Amino acid sequence: MIVIYAIGDEEIRDKNAEIEKLLAEISCGNASATGALYDLIKTDVFAYALSGTGNKADAEDVMQNVFLQIYRNATRYVPEGKPM
Length: 84
Prior knowledge:
Number of strands: 0
Order of helices and strands: HHH
Strand content: under 5%
Number of helices: 3
Distance between the termini: 47 Å
Radius of gyration: 14 Å
Helix content: over 70%
């Protein structure tokens, strides 16, 4: 069974706002925000990686690297609209 649904601009804005909030929390050392971010975007990251790599194993490697980079660079994150 394939389920296809369209998300509107408001849902995209809400999701982006949640991502921004979680990234800000991660940058402040909130470890639980990392798990929440993973849960929020894992499907999107995997789908994008799969579309680029063409196979599941490579997509999983890409996904792992994405989240590793988020974790490693968390303290460098500057929330959108904030001066650097």
